[in-house]
């Protein structure tokens, strides 16, 4: 059980801007009954906002953005990319988007006031999950085009250094392709990677019992969610779940590039769910701290390059 004081310290050191309103206790998503928010619910809403520095672009007014840019302090933008896709029975579909946003926000707070975080890209390339209802997938060219247009927009506002922080595995190939394309077309300083690139293969056992990073809705992501946004986890069971019994329109599935992922068997899916029971908030906190440090260093080095 995470002590309240150390939990507070975690929130404080994250300097979370509005995200830390949900504290967590307990050792697993299912062992814990209750109690998100105890550390902060005893305060009025305006005091719960632990860090008044708003680094998310869409939380600023035009005056605030204008003055921030005019100050000369703002040097770079982070673009979080995620997905809207099934995350097994217990996690909300926004997991990847929220994780990328959370890491990006913490990095921007750490490097404040040099970095702003754009509105996250909430759709990713997820044709392999289209057999689970709720998933929205976009084609690669749409995803790449959206990120490209965000870069163009930020460049038009005078920001010439950009970092894409990705939270969804299905976007990785597009990311890899588009970084050099955008760099040469727009002439900006740009890099991009998934936040879990911060965990080298040989160290993954230090952060998860299973050694699986990032996995899908299992120990790693569920730990992340327990630490950062426990309200996005349901206490539920796997019973009665029949994944392949809904009738879908094949033509529509083909239009968005549906692929039948052979590894996505009912057994694999159930194992992911079972592995999520290994999740703890403590693991999530270590994961987040490590990823934030690693991404911050990358961003900081890019700021040096752009000066
Ligand atoms: Zn995910």
Task: Summarize this structure as a short list of keywords or feature phrases.
binds zinc ion; alpha/beta; Rossmann fold; 12 helices; 307 residues; globular
Plain-language structure description:
Strands 2-1-3-4 form a four-stranded parallel sheet, with helices on both faces. It is built from twelve helices and four strands. It is globular and about 55 Å long. Helix 7 links the parallel strand 3 (161-166) and strand 4. It is 43% helix and 7% strand. It has a single domain (32-306), classed as Creatininase (Rossmann fold), CATH 3.40.50. It is of the alpha/beta class and 307 residues long. The termini are far apart. Residues 87, 95-96, 216, 221 line the site of zinc ion.
